[in-house]
Specification:
Strand order of the largest sheet: 3-2-1-4-5-6
Number of domains: 2
Shape: globular
Structural class: alpha/beta
Order of helices and strands: HEHHEHHEHEEEHHHHHHHH
Number of helices: 14
Radius of gyration: 20 Å
CATH superfamily of the largest domain: 5'-nuclease
Largest sheet: 6 strands, mixed
Distance between the termini: 35 Å
Strand content: 5-15%
Helix content: 40-55%
CATH architecture of the largest domain: 3-Layer(aba) Sandwich
């Protein structure tokens, strides 16, 4: 199984990918990984710095033929309409993080990287829809969110941030199967059983990571589990599944990414960012990101 940061070797011999970035997730991870940093005007830019530092490194490593950056909009989405408690446990983002998201968007636009966001949908759903609309292209999804693992197939691999903004693990179909014991298409069944505390999805009471993996590996989907419920052992797990029969299918629906979102007009194609463009270099100067400017200059 590949170790973190062995993605370059794993990708050797693959076609040039489209790099699809869960940019909102990158912002959050960078914010909590990079120490305080401010622009000449006193605006916090630690997350901005971390995002572009990561993107430049990944692009250097994987040499994509095009990129696109996907962002969340408001926290209220179709999932909160279906399940009022969805993500209700999350505290509001820090005041010094919120202003950095539009600054990252500004930087993406300055280097010519398409920015995709759509009210009512999460970045994950837009990425899933982009993947569905480009079935013939080889795609790499860069994210810290394991929900993306359900997208894995021969043409779509996932680069998961494992620590800070610098360590990555590449998930191919084989790597996923080796870790979970079943195929990527059943990741949503696993998540429904196990739950997801970060999204406030409780899952089935008493079913943890190991039990959820075992159930999915043995019976396949939720349908397979409930069709063979009498065979489930121990009894306490069988009873827990019986009690959660209705809810667990709702949980699966919540964790399943939508693949039919209408992408914003004019932004349906990935493009290669131009980090040496005058607009992007001016952007770096504006926000005091001189370390990135020096990196681009090879200093």
């Amino acid at each position: 199984m590949p170790k973190p940061n062995e993605h370059i070797a794993v990708l050797k011999g693959t076609p040039e990918p489209l790099l699809l970035m869960d940019a909102t997730g990158l912002v959050y991870r960078a914010y909590y990984s990079i120490r305080e940093l401010s622009s000449p005007a006193g605006i916090p830019v630690n997350a901005v710095f971390g995002v572009f530092k990561m993107i430049l490194k990944v692009i250097e490593d994987v040499k994509p033929k095009g990129c696109a950056a996907f962002f969340d909009t408001a926290r209220r989405t179709f999932r909160t309409e279906q399940y009022a408690d969805y993500k209700a446990n999350r505290p509001p983002p820090p005041d010094t993080l919120i202003p950095q998201i539009p600054i990252v968007i500004e930087g993406m636009e300055a280097c010519g990287c398409p920015v995709l966001l759509e009210p009512g949908y999460e970045a994950d759903d837009l990425i899933a829809s982009f993947v569905a609309q480009h079935p013939d292209d080889f795609k790499l999804v860069l994210s810290g969110d394991r929900d993306m693992l359900q997208l894995i197939d021969d043409k779509t691999w996932v680069l998961v941030q494992t620590r800070g903004v610098s360590e990555l693990k590449v998930y191919t179909p084989d790597v996923f199967c080796a870790e979970y014991g079943f195929g990527p298409k059943n990741f949503v069944d696993y998540k429904a059983l196990r739950g997801d505390p970060s999204d406030n999805i409780p899952g089935v009471k008493g079913v943890g990571e190991k039990t959820a993996k075992k159930l999915v590996a043995q019976f396949g989907s939720l349908e397979g589990i409930y069709e063979s419920l009498a065979e489930v052992k121990p009894e306490r797990i069988r009873k827990a599944l019986e009690n959660a029969r209705e809810e667990v299918f709702q949980f699966r629906e919540l964790v399943t990414l939508k693949r039919d979102c209408e992408l914003p007009a004019g932004h349906a194609d990935a493009r290669t960012p131009q980090f040496t463009a005058a607009d992007f270099l001016a952007y770096l100067e504006k926000y005091g990101l001189r370390a990135i400017k020096k990196q681009l200059a090879g200093e």
